[in-house]
């Protein structure tokens, strides 16, 4: 192991600890409830972006249909909370199961590669969006409006913790985000993760070594779908609703922007990129100038283009370059 790599490995836990302490301290110094809610949204989107990074960064599968799994988790948990129980643990399991179940159906796209895979996932997500926004299913799925009045999760054995309070819900999202990061970090560092990277680099060579590459790609697809469903569950609980917009292609596009801005193949980079995208989205859309506020997507696109041109490695690549 070179001295440079050893120094990087020694600094990484310190950087992660500093980031964790910063996130824990947010409710203490946030000026008001609005910014605590912004932080909660950023963490939810960070979970979504990390799940996409498993596909895009480690698996080499650029998906524009990841929002379908996000919406599946949101709607499944909304239905469960409205008609069964708002208990937290079942909702977490339902979100994971809904995302993973829909990913099994969407795995038909794994037969394709490259741009064809990208377009198939996009078409699949748009089909899901069309079903969710169909007013003929308004009695079940709410049609264009979606499902509203979704209750916040409750902790049946800890009644003193009220998740309707902004700070409490923020800490819930933080705990889930940390758990997702640790789980994905263990996955990508395992033999499974190394094999997945080998498939990304040269699938033909891995097949010649006797690896059933489709099984690995399918497993990664399902894991990413399950975690996207978990993010959808938190989103529905946070917004008190599940809407068809969560399955639209723009949701997948924002997640891909977050991965590229943060730096793929790093997990932490896409998480930070997602936080930056959420803050920019809310900040640009709240500009005092009416003309600019209405076209915040254009401004966000300009920021994205700047990252692609001047920081192709994203924020993670910038930090690694300065450390080197």
Q: Could you explain how this protein is built, in words?
A:
The protein has 324 residues and is mostly helical. The chain is 75% helix and 1% strand. It has helices at 3-29, 33-58, 67-83, 88-106, 114-132, 138-141, 166-189, 191-201, 203-208, 213-239, 249-262, 268-285, 290-294, 296-310, 314-323, and strands at 147-148, 241-242. It has a two-stranded antiparallel ribbon with strand order 1-2. It is globular, with a radius of gyration of 20 Å. The chain starts with a helix and ends with a helix.
Which key phrases capture this entry?
75% helix, 2 strands, 324 residues, mainly alpha
Short description:
The protein is mostly helical. It is built from 15 helices and 2 strands.
Number of strands: 2
Number of helices: 15
Average per-residue pLDDT, rounded, comes to 87
Rg over C-alpha atoms, rounded to the nearest angstrom: 20 Å
Q: What sort of overall outline do the alpha carbons produce when their principal axes are compared?
A: globular
Chain oligomer state: single chain
Structural class: mainly alpha
What proportion of the residues is helical, as a percent range? over 70%
> Widest sheet: strand order?
1-2
Largest sheet: 2 strands, antiparallel
Instruction: Outline the low-pLDDT stretches.
Output: none
**H-E order:** HHHHHHEHHHHEHHHHH
Gap between N and C termini, in Å? 15 Å
Strand content: under 5%
What's the SSE blueprint?
Layout: H1 3-29, H2 33-58, H3 67-83, H4 88-106, H5 114-132, H6 138-141, E1 147-148, H7 166-189, H8 191-201, H9 203-208, H10 213-239, E2 241-242, H11 249-262, H12 268-285, H13 290-294, H14 296-310, H15 314-323
Antiparallel strand pairs: 1-2
Helix pairs in contact: 2-7, 2-10, 2-11, 2-12, 3-4, 3-5, 3-10, 4-10, 8-10, 11-12, 11-15, 12-14
């Amino acid at each position: 192991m070179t001295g440079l790599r050893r120094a990087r490995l020694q600094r990484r836990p310190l950087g992660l600890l500093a980031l964790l302490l910063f996130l824990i301290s947010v409710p203490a110094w946030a000026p008001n409830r609005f910014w605590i809610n912004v932080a909660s949204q950023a963490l939810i989107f960070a979970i979504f972006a990390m799940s996409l990074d498993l596909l895009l960064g480690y698996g080499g599968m650029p998906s524009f249909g990841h929002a379908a799994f996000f919406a599946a988790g949101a709607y499944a948990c909304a239905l469960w909370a409205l008609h069964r129980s708002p208990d937290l643990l079942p909702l977490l399991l339902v979100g994971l199961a809904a995302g993973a179940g829909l990913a099994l159906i969407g795995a038909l796209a794994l037969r394709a590669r490259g741009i064809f895979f990208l377009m198939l996932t996009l078409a699949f997500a748009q089909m899901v969006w069309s079903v969710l926004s169909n007013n003929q299913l308004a009695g079940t799925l709410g049609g264009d409006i979606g499902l509203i009045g979704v209750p916040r999760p409750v902790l049946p054995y800890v009644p003193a913790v009220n998740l309707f309070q902004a700070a409490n819900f923020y800490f819930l999202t933080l705990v889930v985000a940390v758990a997702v990061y640790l789980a994905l970090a263990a996955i990508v560092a395992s033999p499974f993760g190394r094999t997945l990277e080998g498939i990304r680099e040269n699938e033909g060579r891995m097949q010649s070594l006797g690896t059933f590459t489709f099984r690995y790609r399918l497993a990664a697809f399902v894991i990413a779908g399950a975690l996207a469903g978990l993010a959808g569950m938190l989103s529905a609980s946070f917004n008190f609703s599940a809407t068809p917009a969560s399955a639209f292609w723009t949701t997948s596009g924002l997640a891909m922007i977050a991965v590229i801005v943060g730096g793929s193949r790093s997990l932490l980079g896409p998480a930070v990129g997602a936080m930056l995208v959420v803050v920019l989205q809310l900040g640009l859309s709240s500009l005092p100038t009416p003309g600019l506020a209405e076209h915040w997507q254009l401004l966000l696109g300009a920021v994205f283009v700047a990252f692609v041109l001047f920081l192709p490695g994203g924020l993670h690549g910038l930090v690694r370059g300065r450390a080197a």
